Amino acid sequence: MAGYRRVVVLGGSFTGMLTSAMLARHFDEVFVVERDEHPTGPEMRKGVPQARHCHILWSGGARIADSYLPGMTEGLLAAGAHRIGIPDGLISFTPFGWQHRFPESEFTLASSRALLDWVMREKALRNDRISVLPRTEVLGLTGGTDRITGVRTRNRDSGEERRLEAELVIDATGRGSAMRRWLEELGVPAPQEESVDTGMVYATRIFRAPEAAGSGFPLVSVLADSRRPVPGRGAVLMPIEGGRWIVTLSGTRGGEPPADAEGFLTYAREGVRHPLIGNLITGLEPLTAVQRSHSTVSRRLHYDRLAVWPEGLVVIGDATAAFNPVYGHGLSAAARSVEAFEKQIRSRGLAAGLGRSAQRAIARAADDAWMMATSNDASYPDCRVASTDPRLTDPAAHRRDSDMMSNLATRNREVSRAALALMTLSTSIAEIQNPWLFAALRRGPEVPLLTEPPLRPAEFACLRTSAAAPTTA
Ligand SMILES: Cc1cc2nc3c(=O)[nH]c(=O)nc-3n(C[C@H](O)[C@H](O)[C@H](O)COP(=O)(O)OP(=O)(O)OC[C@H]3O[C@@H](n4cnc5c(N)ncnc54)[C@H](O)[C@@H]3O)c2cc1C
Fold first, then answer.
1. Does the Cβ of 202 fall within 6 Å of ligand 1?
2. 445 lies in a domain?
3. Where residue 464 falls among pLDDT bands split at 50, 70, 90?
4. What is the domain extent for residue 234?
5. Per-residue pLDDT tens for 140-149?
């Protein structure tokens, strides 16, 4: 591909590595500036504390990641990750009842986040155009309001400060990005910010999976119901590499899951809308302590709307749009943004205005994930909304259609296919609104409401206690 000279990518996590792989098609040199030292195996690191929690990579994101990093999925599976067909391999208690296990239309890749990052990194760094500057912290930008010419960095060991010049600078430093401050130092005004804060707390623990689970155990979820005037409480159980189950409990303001082991189990059995996950983990050997996270606010920084935008700068991933993680959209939305960014490079090259057009394309690529997360979250009691979007300030008036679709998706195969294509970010809200979907919606439910979790015999064997007999709350 056309050789532009040098691009600097700030942050070497999921978005940074995927963006680097994409940019290596267009630039001779891709420098990744990363504050941490990347571990040499699938291990946790300080810069990605959320990696302790369940990380679902939906098919929409997995396909894109695999297209930039060929062999990523195979590498993950070879290292023990699972490919779980959806909804065939999904046991989900939705606000509208149990999801029927229709044949697979989408999938998720199920692994620890540390394994995902490691496999991605291994693939990306095989490209000798990409190199990482480890233990190097970004201090600010160089250039001015017209054009960014590079970054100022500091080596965390030697303290040495240097300037790194580049034709393009990409910020992928995540939720904690200091880009607002860096731009302010150059005289660029602050971007508009929207946020939707349910006060959700995450609590996660990893267990050794029972032998009976084998290698094909489903993804299990008990979803919160935002239509009820009580705090939302949910749970998810995902099989990961090494014969382990990662279990994440989540509760909105007033319904937060506790941090202690006993409270964790009680919450999983009695705090959420169905005890299935609590029953599945009762008696299992815990492999970690309970870990909590409060980083769940959905927040967008609208760099795409600024009147002044310097050439040579793009902000991507969580640094510009971060979502309540309970929908599992952060990684896939970032992957969609990388793809949208590349379309702009292909159509415009590095011509004037690339940064602005890329920023707008990146924002559009995040729209669906934003709308799905925030329109549901805005209905929770005591949710704090900072936005002028009427769909968020008056969510009840706008959720009729999405509720109808979610309801029918549990019992109509075609509606389920469309809803899951959307949930996995494999399609867009605009694309699914077609006559074929409307016809399926008119047909209504095709199969009866399930009154019990749709477990198969081998899965029943994993229910360990007498209290495990499934009952619908
Ligand atoms: C609790 C929780 C659970 C989640 N679960 C899911 C899920 O199930 N599915 C899903 O798709 N998404 C999930 N997400 C979202 C997902 O974690 C993020 O969308 C994703 O990590 C974003 O990647 P990123 O590369 O943009 O940022 P990050 O992964 O946050 O990485 C930022 C990188 O920048 C580096 N950095 C930061 N500042 C500097 C600096 N000044 N100089 C140099 N380097 C710097 C950091 O060290 C890090 O490597 C979850 C998030 C949370 C908080």
1. yes
2. no
3. low
4. 197-294+450-468
5. 999 999 999 9
